[in-house]
Task: structure prediction
Amino acid sequence: MASTTRVPFFGSSKSASKAISLVEIKRTGAALMQTHKACDFRVVEDSKFIKMIFPDKFVAALATHTYPVEVEQDAEGWRYRADLGVERIGYKASTVDPGLPAKIGDPTVYDWDGDGQPAATLKISIPLLPDGELYVVQRGHSILNGRIVQPGKVEGSIETRLFEQRVLGARPGFLNRSPDVQPDAKESRFILTQIADGSSCETLRTAPAKP
Result:
């Protein structure tokens, strides 16, 4: 996914992240159900000034999601659509306040990634400054819209219906500012490719990169 991030005091930067997930599609009655598990998540293009790092524990904590997919034929071929639903990171859903928590002491905030710190931990690197940590909560809702371009392969765009992030704490403390993240719809893409039965996240992480 591509985005532009505006960080208070540090300006704007464009970045692109790459997620690798293990996906399984099964037929359940008349419906097709898709399940995905995140295997790797990293920033592949970043500004020279601000670099964001997703720790291994962050990636490991990303949930496994299951949702229906639509595959329909039209005049151009076969269309694919998957609504991934709402994902919450760093906090639990609340029926009292549906918005993002505003402080670490909020009862919905918890050690989401199991690293001993509240919420979810992201690492940040800025030249001439000590590396830092951000303790964040996020809420996102994405939809995959694509086409079957050949047997066993789907390509398309990522429609971001919602992306919110709030920094609840930071180390050093002066980093405790919530950036404004704006997804770039034109540059956000996905590819689904059929792989061998029995493949695992380790298989995908160690596979040679494809152009």
Notes: The mean pLDDT is 88. The first strand starts at residue 2 and ends at 7. The longest helix spans residues 56-61. DSSP finds two helices and eleven strands in the chain.
